[in-house]
Design brief:
The complex is a heterodimer of chains A (234) and B (279).
Chain A: H1 20-45, H2 52-64, H3 74-104, H4 119-122, H5 124-143, H6 156-164, H7 167-194, H8 200-229
Chain B: E1 25-33, E2 42-51, H1 57-70, E3 93-94, E4 97-98, H2 101-104, E5 123-127, E6 136-138, E7 141-142, H3 145-152, H4 174-184, H5 191-195, H6 202-213, H7 222-235, H8 246-250, H9 258-272
Parallel strand pairs in B: 1-5
Antiparallel strand pairs in B: 1-2, 3-4, 3-5, 6-7
Classes of the chains: A mainly alpha (234), B alpha+beta (279).
């Protein structure tokens, strides 16, 4: 095919900062940071099975890491700043690419059928929004306690037990965690592609790893609310 | 049954063979009609009769157009050229999938999709590729010049022309030449863009970047190529890739997602090396 481009056809070039692949890389790297945190978070949660004392001590330890070399909460504050930066970067890249995709096809098909897409890949955007809202609720509930039945000023263990004793609250957590699992299942594969680390040979392994990792991680998270709900922890 | 086989002939047919039956399939077509780029466009329903299962999808549209012309109506405009599945001109959204991939059972171009994949009485929705970067010219024909401009921005090598050099003077590993060849089978039909939920042209651009980036001749311009081609595809108004895989599934040449990973790898490398898109 031969097409001669008229000078007028070339639209005003944008700088490299609007590069869609670079945005995807921001999404991938911030996502990896958040996944690393989730691994630590899930393992830490399992402390609940070691009893009330152990769990509350663990919660206290997180706030005092590095003391007395550094003032109280220094390590925690650093972790929180990194996480907040990662969340903001992740959301910024997502919104920016979402809008680009919207502009790329403002009028959809009358009939459109998927051939290959997974449910996980289809729910990345709205699933991500729901998980984001859940994180806000989760912090108000268990970290700050303001949205918790026990209220603020209580021990982390009491807040956890009080919350998950309510089947409705447990249901919210289960739904959000399943959505998060699907988000990670596609996200891990997508990040591998975006960072240029996938190929035909690795494709199957990467997808299998993403699935197994998500199931194990979310399974680990779900263990806690279900144990409280069924009276194994109380 | 011979009629289900590629290239079944009328001679091999019997009285019960659908190909020999006095009346072939009757189909209801819902086709996107749009008078021009500025027209809003709408789906219009047509009926076609006597469709042989051996016809290609485009031949079926030819039958409809003959009918429309005889009736004094405007025929349906659609792109086509070689009708051998190698030129990349044809491309229709058929029942919601690019090139009718949901019906074909395997990688195909619209011209190589045959009517034996459909049943008598079927309703078939036919739409153009839909993307901001592919404005509709008329009916089912879209302007895919955006893909040409992506090629112009870096899908080439700068080398003196003249007598072909001795083939053995530059050795290429078999693995690389195979992968480059697979990428080079892209015919630029735009099905990847049409099938992508984000209307992204990543598979197309990635195929071109891979094709040249795997060859020794492509190395001198490797960084500039990827950066300029991605910048151009963003400029054309394509969406970003979310690695869903609809593109590769719809691709008539089965170009794989690994090419997208290779593009990303090259692009991040080029950015690190300080390459910036030319304006």
């Amino acid at each position: 095919m031969v097409t001669v481009t008229q000078p007028g056809q070339r639209r005003t070039p944008k700088a490299a900062k609007t590069n869609s692949v670079a945005k995807k890389a921001v999404m991938a790297v911030s996502g990896i940071i958040l996944v690393l945190y989730l691994i630590a978070h899930m393992i830490g949660n399992l402390k609940v099975f070691a009893g009330r004392e152990s769990f509350n001590d663990y919660s206290h330890w997180i706030r005092t890491i590095g003391e007395p070399a550094v003032p109280a909460q220094t390590t925690l504050t650093i972790i929180r700043i990194v996480l907040l930066a990662a969340v903001i970067a992740h959301i910024w890249a997502a919104i920016s690419l979402w809008r680009q995709a919207k502009r790329a096809r403002p009028n959809g098909y009358v009939t459109k059928k998927a051939v290959a897409q997974s449910y996980a890949s289809r729910t990345m955007r709205w699933g991500g929004v729901i998980v984001g809202l859940f994180v806000v609720y989760h912090i108000l509930d268990l970290t700050m306690g303001v949205a918790n039945p026990e209220g603020p000023g209580t021990t982390p263990y009491d807040r956890l037990v009080a919350g998950f004793s309510n089947p409705l609250i447990t249901a919210v957590y289960v739904i959000a965690l399943v959505l998060l699992g699907m988000h990670l299942r596609h996200g891990i594969w997508s990040a591998t592609q975006t960072l240029g680390q996938s190929n035909k040979r690795r494709e199957r392994t990467v997808n299998l790893f993403a699935l197994v990792f998500s199931v194990v991680l979310i399974g680990g998270f779900l263990l806690v609310p279900f144990s409280v709900l069924f009276g194994l922890v109380g | 049954m011979t009629a289900t086989r590629e290239g079944a002939t009328f001679a091999s047919g019997t009285a019960t063979d659908p190909a020999m039956a006095p009346h072939g399939m009757t189909l209801t077509l819902r086709i996107w009609r749009q008078k021009g780029p500025a027209d809003k466009g709408r789906m219009v329903t047509y009926q076609v009769e006597d469709i042989s299962p051996d016809m290609s999808f485009l031949e079926m549209l030819d039958v409809l157009n003959e009918k429309l012309i005889l009736a004094g109506d405007d025929p349906v405009v659609f792109d086509h050229d070689c009708r051998e599945g190698i030129c990349g001109s044809c491309g229709l959204m058929i029942n919601g999938t690019a090139h009718g991939r949901g019906t074909s059972g395997g990688p195909t171009t619209t011209c190589q999709l045959h009517m034996r994949k459909f049943k008598d009485g079927d309703t078939i929705d036919i739409e153009p590729w839909r993307a901001t970067a592919f404005p509709v010219i008329k009916d089912l024909s879209v302007d895919r010049g955006a893909l040409d401009r992506i090629i112009q921005s870096g899908g080439y090598i700068s080398a003196p022309t003249g007598t072909a050099p001795e083939a053995h003077s530059i050795l290429v590993p078999k693995k690389d030449s195979d992968a480059a060849f697979d990428a080079a089978t892209c015919i630029g039909c735009g099905a990847c863009v049409a099938a992508c939920p984000n209307a992204s042209s990543m598979l197309f651009t990635a195929a071109k970047v891979s094709h040249l980036g795997l060859m020794p001749q492509g190395q001198p311009e490797r960084n500039e190529r990827v950066i300029n081609m991605v910048a151009q595809q963003d400029r054309e108004g394509f969406g970003g890739c979310t690695n869903i895989g609809e593109c590769s599934a719809a691709c008539p040449k089965g170009i794989s997602m690994e090419n997208i990973s290779r593009l990303n790898h090259d692009l991040l490398g080029a950015l690190r090396a300080g390459a910036r898109p030319k304006s």
